[in-house]
Every structure is written in structure tokens, then in C-alpha cells.
Amino acid sequence: MAGAALAASSAEEGRGGWSREDDKAFENALATIAPPPKEEEEEEGGSEGGESGGGDWWELIAARVPGKTAAEVRRHYEALVEDVNAIEAGRVPVPRYVGEEAPSGSTPTAVTHSSKEKQPQHHQDHNSHHGSADRKRGGFEIGGQGKSCSKAEQERRKGIPWTEEEHRLFLLGLDKFGKGDWRSISRNFVISRTPTQVASHAQKYFIRLNSMNRDRRRSSIHDITSVNGVDVSSPQGPITGQANSNPVAVGSTMKHPSQANVPGVAMYGPPVGHPVTGHVVSAVGTPVMLPHGHAPYVMPVAYPVPPPSMHP
DNA sequence: TCTTGCTTACCAAGGTATCC
DNA sequence: GGATACCTTGGTAAGCAAGA
Hints:
This protein has 9 helices and 3 strands, in the order H-H-H-H-H-H-H-H-H-E-E-E.
């Protein structure tokens, strides 16, 4: 989505003159100002919190985007939503990274930064390939391009750090779909990441949660365990067992550990468990950032490089 | 039985804190 | 300020379970 949002944004530069700064301000506004409650759209649980709630939501948003009117902001938002929906519906080819090959065949499958999904990898002995050049991030081929790779490619290969925004979406998705349903989380929330990536991220996240009471550590993105003041960190232990220890049924209401004295709360300082600003949340069943009648999880986020949608 | 999806364990790279 | 150690993170192979 972020990619979609960015694509939309850049596409819109021609129409509305939205600069990256404008987009950023716009996104920040969206993240911090709750949409007004709307009767027909609030059935899913509504969005609490935030600083607005009034009818002039667009005005509030516009107030945070220098030089933009409420109407412009609204149009911009709707354009973003349209693009996101179009991409999710498979009607629009997903953006690709610079230097990326066009996806062959009809599959619009995104070019992902997960090498697993995009290029065959020599299946080697686990030990033997460790340290081997072709597994190292600078060394494997992409689409037969060989070793000559651009800086951008190398940058991409070494892994794209999760942004706070992505992590928040991850938390929201976790809250909504529960642990284990990485596919849904990836598809509906963190659409810039593959399910595998989401699962991997989750693994680290839960490990982090469970080691919260260990000695002092550096802060990390995984210290963010709540969104909008609502703690969405799961009390469940590490992702354990193939038996799918998934104690959280999909769509079920998760208990918020912070309210139930769970680790995962602040352990050394502010970053830990600090509420993520933004009205996004509410936990279960709540659409993310939904002003007027739009599909959930539309939270435009701009990226320096448009992350491709992972979902065909 | 085969396919799909999830979990775990491991690695390399990069960043940060600490020590000199 | 530089060197070193430690920590965090993203990615992926392998194993396992559930469903078709």
C-alpha cells in the first residue's frame, strides 16, 4: 500500500503538485487525527481517540498540510484510496524497484525483495552455503543479471528495514487476525511485506517481547507494542511449536497484555511500549484510517522507494 | 499423497555501546 | 577518536502440520 500510495502520490504530482513534504505532512496528519465518527461506517468498532471527531476532519487534516485546502486533501486521499484499491484488485501493475526487471509472464506478482520469491536459489547444504558468495547479499543474481549490480540493487538486497509505520500496521494486523495468520496480515495490513517477511518480523518481535525482562538493551522497533495507546502486544510466548500454538483465534478479540500485566511493557525507557501515535487503531475489527467509506487498511505511507505490493 | 502455509533456527550485515 | 564487542535485524532453509 505504501507503494501504491507513493505511486499515487507521484502520479498526482502532475495533477495537484503534491511534494514529498506534502505527502509526509498529509500522512502524519492522517496518523494523528482521528476521522469523524460516521454512523454507517462505525459499525466495526469505531475509531476512538485522536484529536478530532468533529465534522471538519478534512479541515483538520488540511491544517497540517501547508498550502493545501481541505478539498485538495480530500481529493488526494481519495486518489490514494483508489489506487490502492486498484492495485489490490490486481488492476494495476505494482510498482517496481529501480532496475528491476519487468515481471515476466502474466503474473503481476510483485517483485519482492524477498529473494526467495523471486529467484531460484541454489539449494545447498545448509552449512556449505553459509559464507558462500552467492548467498551473501552482494553476491546473488537477480533475474540473470549476474554480478554486476547497481548500488540500488545492493541496497535492496541487504534488506529493507521495517519502518515504524509498517510495524504499526503489523501490530494492527496482529491484533485483528491474530498470531499465525501472517498471510492475512500481509495482505491486509502490511502489504508491502510478504507473509514470510511478516512471519520473520513477528518472530523477532515475540522474541523481543519475551526478553523484555532481560537486562537493559537497546531500543528497537519491536519495543513498539501498542498503537494509539492500545497495547497490541500479544501475551503469547514465542511463536512456538508447529502445533500452531496460536492461542488467538483469527478475528478474535485479543486481550491487551499491558492491561494484563504482561511483559512487553516498558523495560528501559520511553521507547518501550510507547504508544504509537495515530488513531489507527482500535483494535479488533477496526478499520484503519477510514475517513469516509473506504476500505480498511488504507494508510498512505510514502517511501523513498516504492515498495512493491506483495500481493498479486 | 501432495500442496500450502507456519514456525524455528541459523546466518550475515549493520548499528550502537563501551573501552582504550 | 578509533577499535572492539555486543545487539538488532532481515532473510531463508528446513521441518512440521493441516487441508485438498
